[in-house]
């Protein structure tokens, strides 16, 4: 089936912020791994909610509340469809990916893990898929094990074979690295983990926004991602859970909405997924998130992937032509997403980032919430450019020109005695 | 001689100051380090600014510099020499830590000198 390619100039018209200038130059926004810009449809959905049917949900009998509740639950259904989940009840709305993973570590992990149990992670994990497991290990006496990477930035399959064993209870892995761009073989990892009796938690913060993802094909047990990294507003995250898991887990946050019957000394819990949505949720932003999903479905995730592959291939080639630039992650655009971390000689990434900013080019510089990965790569920080649906090839040219300029500017300073 | 170090693990900036005192005066000061241009420039400028000053004068200069870094509206009345070049850093809160790293090391060095005296 032919994929209708993204018409990037048409897409850009939907994003008001792309009209901005920065230091007198057109904004070249290449920090999409950090957060993404919002199309008019998402901004309008948010405003429309507050202007027309703002009300608390699930509890009210009046019309506004009924409308708000229906719209909110509609988005749950949309999200389920977007990732191929079998039912809307497998979707929990949280604040972000980080909260989703913490939810699993607490509500599942603290209930089931014992001293000596093992949690298998990788050296490329974002802190949000690392710290919750550190805290869980500390609380339960479980041990952490780490799968290493090769020089191309890919996970070592042999490490999985070796580390996932009879004591392994959970394997937590990123679907796509926010530094290396590496796309990990989650389906194969899940097959292995399941065959050895372990559950799989997938950090999909970078994958769901950029690739077609089907949780039933991947067969993972939990998946976490954030709205703001996929054209949606901040303050909304998703936890997908395989059917049957949420019912068995302990509650996470306690309060209104997640209960059924409340006595003074004890309570019973609401059905899933509402058991995990305590208190008033982020109604407005969930509804706006629905508009973001609709927008992405309009483009088609195959088209999004194709678009980013093209830009990434172009960027990798252009950066490879600069002898002082080291780019990290797989060289093959098939094996990676549109995240390109790089360093320019001896220059500190903060300095590279500042020069790029003066040219209107927004990249990130730092450790990208992946200090263990930085250590593994032998650096303290990198610059990082990350692409999305509204980026153009000539924006890569602007990036490269800015990198050249940083090299020129600092070149005569770089010889330190 | 007092050796004072500063290190920011988040970005990898490192500075090392070596201070020699004659009485209360900083007779010699040298700086080595690794990191971003702002942290290194600040360290280098610091050595020029405090050499020959007393510990008290150095502390006063440090307070002044910190004020310059944290308040974009602040304009120093005194002559701060080359340090004025770093005034612009105040507009980039993320980079302020880079500029003040060497000065925090200086404070540590002065405190230890005072403690030993």
Layout: helices, strands, pairs:
The complex is a heterodimer of chains A (417) and B (117).
Chain A: H1 8-12, E1 21-22, E2 25-26, E3 28-29, H2 40-53, H3 63-83, E4 91-94, H4 97-112, E5 118-122, H5 131-140, E6 143-147, H6 157-163, E7 168-174, H7 186-195, E8 199-203, H8 215-218, E9 222-226, E10 237-241, H9 245-248, E11 259-262, E12 267-269, H10 283-299, H11 301-320, E13 325-327, E14 339-344, H12 349-358, E15 361-362, E16 364-366, H13 371-377, E17 382-386, H14 393-414
Parallel strand pairs in A: 3-15, 5-6, 5-7, 7-8, 8-9
Antiparallel strand pairs in A: 1-2, 4-10, 9-10, 11-12, 13-14, 14-17, 16-17
Helix pairs in contact in A: 2-10, 3-10, 4-5, 11-14, 12-14
Chain B: E1 2-8, E2 13-22, E3 25-34, H1 37-50, H2 55-70, H3 93-116
Antiparallel strand pairs in B: 1-2, 2-3
Helix pairs in contact in B: 1-3, 2-3
Percent helix of chain B: 40-55%
- Roughly what is the average pLDDT of chain A, rounded to an integer? 96
- Order of adjacent strands in the largest pleated sheet of chain B: 1-2-3
Name the average pLDDT of chain B. 89
- CATH architecture designation of chain B: Alpha-Beta Complex
What does this structure look like?
- The complex is a heterodimer of chains A (417) and B (117).
- With 417 residues, chain A is α/β, with parallel strands linked by helices.
- Chain A folds into 2 domains: 8-30 and 301-410, Aspartate Aminotransferase, domain 1, CATH 3.90.1150; 43-297, Aspartate Aminotransferase, domain 2.
- Helices cover 40% and strands 16% of the residues of chain A.
- Chain A contains 14 helices and 17 strands.
- Chain A has a 7-stranded mixed sheet with strand order 4-10-9-8-7-5-6, sandwiched between helices. Chain A has a 4-stranded antiparallel sheet with strand order 13-14-17-16, covered by helices on one side.
- In chain A, a hairpin with a 4-residue loop joins strand 11 and strand 12.
- The termini of chain A are far apart.
- Residues 413-417 of chain A have low confidence and may be disordered.
- Chain B has 117 residues and is of the alpha+beta class.
- Chain B has one domain (2-116): Sufe protein. Chain: A (Alpha-Beta Complex).
- Chain B has helices at 37-50, 55-70, 93-116; strands spanning 2-8, 13-22, 25-34.
- A 3-stranded antiparallel sheet of chain B has the order 1-2-3, covered by helices on one side.
- In chain B, strand 1 and strand 2 (13-22) form a beta hairpin.
- Chain B is globular, with a radius of gyration of 13 Å.
- Chain A binds chain B through residues 348, 350-351, 354, 366-367, 371, 380-381, 410, 413, 416, and chain B through 9-13, 35-38, 40, 92, 94-95, 98.
